[in-house]
Specification:
Layout: H1 2-32, H2 36-43, H3 47-50, E1 59-65, H4 72-80, E2 89-96, H5 102-110, E3 119-125, H6 131-140, E4 146-150, E5 154-156, H7 160-167, E6 173-182, H8 188-205, E7 217-221, H9 235-245, E8 249-260, H10 266-286, H11 297-326, H12 331-352, H13 360-384, H14 414-417, H15 421-442, H16 446-456, E9 462-471, E10 476-484, H17 509-517, H18 524-529, E11 534-536, H19 543-552, E12 566-568, H20 570-574, H21 581-597, H22 601-621
Length: 625
């Protein structure tokens, strides 16, 4: 019976993974094939010639900007070169609390001879409120027939507005998308990905509507705009799809080009994809009405292209571990597991040890796996609302909680910085693998634990608290650690931050059991998966105690220098919860001993295996505190 259930889940997951990546694009190609010739001829029409025969609409180009001094001048010069009557074109640049010279450069550029004809307003908002607030305010202040939203770092093709004017003669079109191009792709994988996305958008349009837009450039009818919710993440999807939901079409035109000047790196690309992933989940919920069959082709593309993308990392993990579970009894499952393992191995190889002459398939595979990993992190962070504290210089003070005066420079912390890149990457791979497997194995018991917590005492199931993460020479990380609640609700409301103590009356009966078995810490696998923590490392400390501990304990700040805090660790298996400064003082010695073990791969493996076995013993024997 168990095998049948696992087989069913694994096969369905595998089918959806294959369908999303291969089946859906093929279906789009097949559905659109009869229309291809007609469509190509349509796109080859000379819109700029026909534009002379129509009444051109007025257009407002809105450009939200935050610290864009590198690109803002080129952007304004690009707008000055557009082939469109200046009397019908308004430009609004919203500098959203910029801390660089974006505002001053924009004003200076607008006064240049070739830009003087522009009707441009450069607004300087003192406080950074976010892109959505700027968009809402600037669109509310515009009164033209069409509005175009464009990123600062994207240049627009000269005839873009004339082509748009002709396309909007069709009263059923509410949104018009541009063709997004990269001037300098960060990788071959990124180039392939965006070529694929543009191809998909052109085919989606023929089924009724493209899905969303790209912030580089898209246009819409001003009268169809509705204010965006302040917490909207993917504004360039929600805004156009709200218009589609009201019965209009979102079209795509490959003759309108937006060229991205800024070259992304791995960090930028990863952060962007995490944000988009969180936005995908948010927009799926808010636009769920688009899944109704009444929307026809839009419902089909929304389900196949966006809804499945949200759950894709989970489907991929289910397929992988489901086939692993069944591989000993079924040859087909063993083959499926082997194929996935080879694909993931190739992806990891290209990610961590790229070849001098990379293969296009391997590069694309690596970009795909990295993208879904970022997708997983973004979705998990959104579900559990695990927004990070701001990355900040450790010399700055937090207005809410003290982090101490500073974190020591690298020359005083060399013991933790001797970890090789191989050890660092191996440790991270170990973290991702263990946390993924653990979360899947723990999912069946999570509902039971959650029910017992609710029956034990009133209050939330999960307990989230700001903790201090990895420290580096110029900054330290803050993150929200998540655990199952073991204390009464609002345990520190009256007392503020206090040490735990033996027989603590704030701990609930079931909470006491969870602490002894350490199952209260199972949700922290989520923190590990998204990179806030490691499986093994120093205990993550509370900011409220940080200043006092740093003053009282020599080399306390260096304990997390270059090392992520862990769910368990050498200190945790040798001691229980901290009840006083002396407990922390003892743990610091263990933390530095663990850091020294990271100096070689062999000693790291030996140390981590020892800690894992001792942690299991603590959980099984109930020796936790």
């Amino acid at each position: 019976m168990t095998d049948s259930i696992v087989i069913f889940i694994t096969v369905i997951s595998c089918f959806l993974v294959v369908y999303h990546h291969i089946g859906y694009p093929l279906l789009l190609r097949l559905v659109n094939k009869p229309k291809t010739k007609e469509t190509l001829n349509k796109h080859k029409r000379n819109y700029t010639d026909s534009a002379a025969d129509i009444i051109l609409p007025s257009v407002t180009i809105i450009i939200p900007a935050y610290n864009e001094e590198k690109w803002i001048a080129e952007k304004i010069r690009n707008l000055a070169a557009l082939d469109y009557p200046s009397g019908l074109l308004d430009i609004k640049v919203g500098c959203d609390g910029c801390t660089d010279n974006s505002y001053e450069i924009a004003l200076q550029t607008a006064e240049e001879e070739e830009c003087k004809h522009l009707r441009i307003s450069v607004l300087d908002f003192e406080r950074n409120r976010g892109k959505v607030s700027v968009i809402n305010e600037l669109i509310a202040g515009s009164h033209t027939e069409l509005v175009a939203l464009s990123d600062v770092s994207a240049l627009i093709s000269i005839d873009a507005l004339l082509i748009a004017a002709e396309r909007f003669q069709d009263s059923t079109i509410g949104v018009l998308n541009s063709h997004y191009r990269l001037l300098n792709p960060g990788s071959d994988g990124e180039r392939t990905y965006w070529e694929y996305q543009c191809d998909i958008k052109s085919k989606e349009a023929l089924l009724g509507s493209t899905l969303g837009a790209h912030g580089a450039l898209y246009l819409f009818r001003r009268e169809l705009f509705t204010q965006l919710a302040p917490d909207t993440i993917n504004d360039d999807f929600v805004l156009p799809m709200n218009i589609v939901a009201n019965g209009f079409r979102a079209e795509y035109d490959e003759g309108i080009n937006a060229v991205e000047l800024e070259k992304s790196n791995d960090t930028m690309d990863s952060q962007r994809r995490k944000r988009i992933a969180a936005g995908n989940l948010q927009q799926l919920w808010r636009l769920k009405r688009l899944l109704s069959p009444s929307y026809g082709g839009v419902a089909f593309t929304f389900f196949s292209g966006k809804a499945l993308r949200v759950v894709m990392p989970f489907l991929m993990l289910t397929t992988y571990f489901g086939s692993l579970f069944l591989s000993t009894h079924y040859l087909a499952m063993a083959s499926l597991f082997a194929l996935q393992s080879i694909a993931y191995a190739i992806a990891i190889l290209y990610i961590y040890a790229p070849l001098k002459k990379p293969n296009k398939i391997g590069t694309a595979l690596a970009y795909l796996v990295k993208g879904h990993a970022a997708n997983l992190v973004g979705v998990v962070r959104y579900i559990f609302q695990l927004d990070k504290g701001h990355w900040q210089s450790v010399k700055e003070s937090n207005p809410n909680e003290s982090l101490g005066d500073n974190v020591q420079e690298a020359n005083t912390c060399q013991n933790t910085m001797t970890m090789s890149q191989f050890t660092h990457r191996s440790k991270r791979c170990f973290d991702v693998m263990v946390s993924s497997i653990s979360l899947i194995l723990c999912l069946p018991i999570f509902p039971i634990i959650m029910l017992l917590i609710k029956l034990d005492s009133p209050g939330p199931i999960f307990f989230k608290q700001m903790r201090i993460g990895r420290a580096m020479p110029d900054h330290t990380a803050l993150f929200q650690m998540i655990k199952f609640r073991t204390m009464v609700s609002d345990a520190e409301k009256k007392t503020g931050a206090t040490w735990a103590k033996k027989n603590d009356p704030r701990i609930t009966p079931f909470g006491r059991f969870m602490r002894k078995t350490r199952i209260d810490e199972l949700p922290q696998f989520i923190n590990v998966l998204i990179g806030d923590m490691s499986i093994i490392g120093p205990r993550p400390e509370r900011p409220g105690f940080y200043q006092k501990l740093e003053d009282a304990i020599p080399f306390f700040a260096e304990r997390t220098y270059g090392v992520s805090p862990g769910i368990t660790g050498l200190a945790q298996v040798n001691q229980g919860y901290d009840t006083c400064i002396d407990d922390v003082r003892t743990k610091v010695g263990y933390d530095h001993s663990y850091a020294l073990a990271l100096s070689s791969t062999a000693s790291w493996i030996k140390m981590d295996l020892t800690i894992v076995l001792r942690t299991i013993a603590v959980m099984v024997l109930g020796r936790g505190q």
